[in-house]
Specification:
CATH superfamily: Vaccinia Virus protein VP39
Oligomer: single chain
Number of domains: 1
Protein name: Ribosomal RNA large subunit methyltransferase J
Order of helices and strands: HEEHHHEHEHEHEHEHEEHE
Strand content: 15-25%
Helix content: 25-40%
Bound molecules: S-adenosylmethionine
Family: Belongs to the RlmJ family.
Radius of gyration: 17 Å
InterPro entries: RlmJ, SAM-dependent_MTases_sf
Strand order of the largest sheet: 5-4-1-6-7-9-8-10
CATH topology: Rossmann fold
CATH class: Alpha Beta
EC number: 2.1.1.266
CATH architecture: 3-Layer(aba) Sandwich
Shape: globular
Structural class: alpha/beta
Organism: Phytopseudomonas seleniipraecipitans
Length: 278
Amino acid sequence: MNYRHAFHAGNHADVLKHLLLCRLFALLARKEAPYAYLDSHAGVGLYDLTGDQASRTGEWREGIGRLWQEQHVPAALDSYLEVIRAMNPDGVLRHYPGSPELARLQSREQDRLQLNEKHPEDGRLLKENMDADPRVAVHLGEGWHVPRALLPTREKRAVLLIDPPFEKADELERCVTALNEAIGRMRQTIVVVWYPIKDERQLRRFYRDMEKSAAPKLLRAELFVHPADDAQRLNGSGLLISNPPWGLEEELRELLPWLAERLAQSKGSWRLDWLIAE
Ligand SMILES: C[S@@+](CC[C@H](N)C(=O)[O-])C[C@H]1O[C@@H](n2cnc3c(N)ncnc32)[C@H](O)[C@@H]1O
């Protein structure tokens, strides 16, 4: 396990994923009923963008760094940016939330968080960072076991983020299995699968397998900062979302073109479509 998310925190892919999570939490809050948030590959939860690891790549400068300087942003970005503003009250961008901290800050008293991180050191930091909140449970187990271990939840609504490091060749396949297991155990689960886009050809089989998955509905949202033709580079990233709440597709249709323009490095673009339509 060599991957350390601190090198990549706040980059364009984190922006897409974290913004999507914030929109999900906002849309779920339209109803009082509680939800459970499950994070199979949670990371440490909090990042210092001036720290050694984030500084070495500087990836965040082309991600959250760009949005931070924007004067006018679409309203759907507000809740995401408000969290980051609150973490950086002096107006200088330094602290950045991971998915666990975003979920913690955007969820309500009645909601519950189950976070999992396998790396021992990162797991310890995650525990430390989440310690004060009684709604949060941190597990240090195998991320791929999360659907089987934690679903169905006692809450009738659940969001599961599957965000592995993609260090190993079989991780796309494992995402398909994890999504199928989650839907098999709790059909209405909102599963969010994040994946990197280098050369698009590498994803054909993944898309085909996902089209045949058990998800009742599956939305695909992708954001490119370069054309997807160089396998050595992170050209963009994608999210597959099962059972997206009503209103999410429309919001993404407004947000993605805006993000593609603001976050483009050589050429920005986006895609939003259904891999499984109802
Ligand atoms: C992309 S990062 C997660 C980022 C986090 N979800 C966020 O958005 O802030 C992937 C994490 O998975 C952890 N990891 C790697 N292999 C794992 C496994 N088999 N089970 C659980 N966690 C694992 C890594 O240590 C790393 O912290």
